[in-house]
Structure formats: structure tokens, C-alpha cells
Design a protein that fits this description.
By secondary structure, this protein is of the alpha+beta class. It has one domain (3-170). Helices cover 42% and strands 20% of the residues. The protein is built from five helices and eight strands, in the order ββαββαααββββα. The strands form four sheets. The chain has a two-stranded antiparallel sheet. Strands 3-4 form a two-stranded antiparallel ribbon. A hairpin with a 5-residue loop joins strand 3 (20-23) and strand 4. Helix 2 runs parallel beside helix 4 and helix 2 (44-70) packs across helix 5.
Length: 173
């Protein structure tokens, strides 16, 4: 696999097109599927990093699309997340932190034991799993749920969904 300056030469859109799936439903569902096993040992760790950076760029595009729709500034509420976006290659350990942070920025909150759904909220559970090492990488994210806060206007949610769906078509999903 060709390398440029320690990063994959493959474009982010090419990497992302098979890994980002946004499906229509009554709720907004973000489904990211990835299971990666690379035969060439020398490329394994770099491939994981390459995918993480493709994920970062896709999430950044989603956020920018929604922020543009909101006519809001493209800034995160948490400086720590700003740093993740602004910095260079994204470490695999931070990929899911960034994923969850962006869901929060969009008004979608991951469900956990202390964050119980209300009657007005829609619920789906977000689960993710990372398995593998640099010798045998297997990187999997699967969707099961995100809670949509009931205080958000349904028309606004529909508008966000249209923006996300347009993005999915743009990256060739």
C-alpha cells in the first residue's frame, strides 16, 4: 500500500464510502460498520490509523453540514474536542471519544445507566467494540442506539436527517 508522509495515500472519501452508512427511519440512526483484517503485516497499524482519520473527517463533515444548516459557528463546546479535530492523525483510542462527542454536539446523546430515556425521547442504543491488536486488527463499530432529546423540534430533526442523507450520497454510500 502506498504511503505519503506516514499516512495512507487513499482519499478519505474512498476509505469512508464503505464504512459510513446512514439509513432512513423514524429516528435518526447513525450506523458505522467496520471489520478490518489486513494481510500485509507492515500496513496493519497504518491502515487502522488511516481508517480512524477517515472517520474523523466524515464526522467533521457531518458536523459542518449540520452547523451550516444551523448557521452556527463550527466550534465544539469542549476545547478538548476542538483539539482532537484540529490536531493531525487521530489515535484509535480517541476515535470513539470523538464519535460520541460529535453525537452530543448534534443533540444526540449516548445512552448509559445514568442517562435514562424520558417519555418524549426516542431511543436506540449505541454500542461499539474494538477488538484486535497491531498484529491482528479487527475494528468494529455497530449501531444499536442513540437517544434523541424530546425538546428538539421534529422538523429540525428531519432537516438534520436530510443533510446527513445528502452527505451519505456525497461519499458514495
Amino acid at each position: 500500500m502506498l504511503r505519503q508522509m506516514g499516512r495512507l495515500s487513499t482519499s478519505n472519501n474512498v476509505l469512508a464510502r464503505n464504512y459510513l452508512l446512514i439509513t432512513p427511519s423514524s429516528n435518526i440512526k447513525l450506523r458505522v460498520y467496520k471489520k478490518m483484517v489486513v494481510d500485509c503485516e507492515g500496513d496493519r497499524l497504518e491502515t487502522v490509523y488511516g481508517w480512524c482519520n477517515a472517520l474523523k473527517d466524515c464526522l467533521y463533515d457531518i458536523l459542518k453540514t449540520v452547523r451550516d444548516f444551523r448557521e452556527a459557528k463550527l466550534e465544539f463546546s469542549q476545547p478538548r474536542i476542538n483539539n482532537l479535530i484540529a490536531s493531525g492523525p487521530l489515535h484509535p483510542c480517541n476515535a470513539f471519544k470523538l464519535y460520541n462527542a460529535i453525537l452530543s454536539e448534534l443533540g444526540l446523546f449516548t445512552l448509559n445507566g445514568r442517562d435514562r430515556p424520558t417519555e418524549k425521547s426516542s431511543m436506540i442504543c449505541l454500542n461499539h467494540r474494538i477488538a484486535g491488536t497491531t498484529h491482528s486488527p479487527s475494528f468494529t463499530i455497530t449501531d444499536s442506539s442513540v437517544r434523541i432529546m424530546g425538546c428538539i423540534n421534529p422538523d429540525y430533526l428531519n432537516s438534520i436527517y436530510r443533510q446527513l442523507y445528502a452527505l451519505s450520497e456525497k461519499v458514495g454510500v
